[in-house]
Amino acid sequence: MTPTQNPYAAVADSLQSARALPGPAYVDPAVFAEERQRVFAAGWLPVARVSDLAAPGDYRSADLAGTPVVATRDKAGDLHVLSRACRHRGMPVVQGAGNAASLNCPYHLWRYGLDGRLLSAPAMDQSTAFDVEACALPAVRHEVWGGWLFANLDGAALPLAEALAPLAERLAPLNPDRLVTAGVLTYESPWNWKVMVENFLESYHHIGPHAASLQQTNPGLSTRATSDSDRFSILENPGASDDIGSFVVAVAFPATLMFFTEGVAPFGVWYELCDIGPTRFTLNIHMLAPPELAAVPEIVAEFRDQVAAVHGEDIPVCEGVQRGVSGDLYTPGPLSHLEAGLWAFHRHLAACFNSGSST
Ligand code: FES
Ligand SMILES: [Fe+2]
């Protein structure tokens, strides 16, 4: 990729001199094509909460920046992440989530085990090219971390326990593994995926769109980033007074967006970025709660209202930023010290673009 196509070539070497990203980072399909390989395929991407794959036969489909996969738990209890593209002509063998004894392609009814092996294929006995052993769904490297099942498409990323060790230490008292899915809210999001990550990485904007909500409880100007890693970001959001709970926002780069409350009601939120394209994605906001609270409808309803309200305040600024950075007159401005997470994210992207050769 030439320097003019690499929007991360000029990432600053200090937070004091750091700037926002240039416009092409948010609009150029060539940049996104490189990101698919260098950022997403090379990184760890969340596929499911492990608690959503509790029983043998449970499965959940996902789309990892253009690569359809399915997470399964097989009869022996083992977890798998498999390509979802049928070994016949590529039809996704399954959609959505559920429980099944096998994965049955709806096109010509090839049938796969939960471990990916091809079990049967109608009317293939005259094909000399057909070899049942060679037609398994490809397995994707996976690990469990923080209650999520993660996948790494290129198989070469650092183990999560190593890459995210300080983040795991920070989150350990909050016990994220224990949280289960209390509900999911879905939004079509017509902006680049990095606009969403950057919005999540700073609470500086509490003073703007969240002036009447989060700014009252967790003032944006009191927040602080506590990591200087380029693999993840941690942002502490203290309460406005002693009787108001604090929360922590964390992002495991590239795009695992996490929020956890501290104190008596240990809730979590996971922003899952799905079907990512150059200037759009589908956002699934997962509400996470301890099982005993996730089972109480009134609590879940209030939780849902709060999550929807906060995201409703973020939608106009995300849409607006996408419009602004798409115009010819946009030039990247300087970052505040309250946006340290953006600088860490940009360094992560720069490192991805600077390592290895173009694909
Ligand atoms: S594409 Fe799956 S059986 Fe034909
Ligand atoms: Fe926000």
Rounded radius of gyration (Å): 21 Å
The hetero compounds bound to this protein are:
FE2/S2 (inorganic) cluster, fe (ii) ion
Order of helices and strands: HHEEEEEEEEEEHHEHHEEEEEEHHH
Query: Given the C-alpha coordinates, what overall shape results?
Result: globular
Helix tally? 9
Find the count of extended strands (DSSP E, 2+ residues): 17
Taking all residues together, what is the mean pLDDT? Answer: 96
What would you say the CATH architecture of the largest domain is? Alpha-Beta Complex
CATH homologous superfamily of the largest domain, by name? Naphthalene 1,2-dioxygenase Alpha Subunit, Chain A, domain 1
CATH topology of the largest domain: Naphthalene 1,2-dioxygenase Alpha Subunit, Chain A, domain 1
Helix and strand arrangement:
Elements: H1 24-27, H2 29-41, E1 45-49, E2 58-64, E3 67-73, E4 79-83, E5 97-99, E6 103-104, E7 111-112, E8 118-120, E9 141-145, E10 148-152, H3 160-163, H4 165-171, E11 180-189, H5 193-201, H6 214-217, E12 224-225, E13 232-237, E14 247-252, E15 256-261, E16 268-277, E17 280-289, H7 291-294, H8 297-326, H9 340-354
Antiparallel strand pairs: 1-10, 2-3, 2-5, 3-4, 6-7, 7-8, 9-10, 11-17, 12-13, 13-14, 14-15, 15-16, 16-17
